[in-house]
Design brief:
about 60 residues; mainly alpha
């Protein structure tokens, strides 16, 4: 389930271009059992994954 939540968070931030607050609210709708802190953690993780994917290969 962790991968599913992270994938959804990444989609909300990158494909739908939602703000972190909007993405957190949307995550709550998809996963109502998640606490706010958990949603925030997943959004931070998703953003870090996206930033790492966008780095040029020579900087890794």
């Amino acid at each position: 389930m962790n991968e599913e939540i992270t994938a959804r968070a990444r989609f909300l931030l990158t494909e739908l271009h939602l703000s972190p607050v909007e993405a957190s609210n949307r995550l709550q709708a998809y996963f109502p059992d998640l606490e706010r802190e958990e949603r925030t953690r997943y959004l931070h993780h998703a953003r870090a994954l996206q930033e790492a994917a966008n780095e040029p290969p020579e900087s890794r």
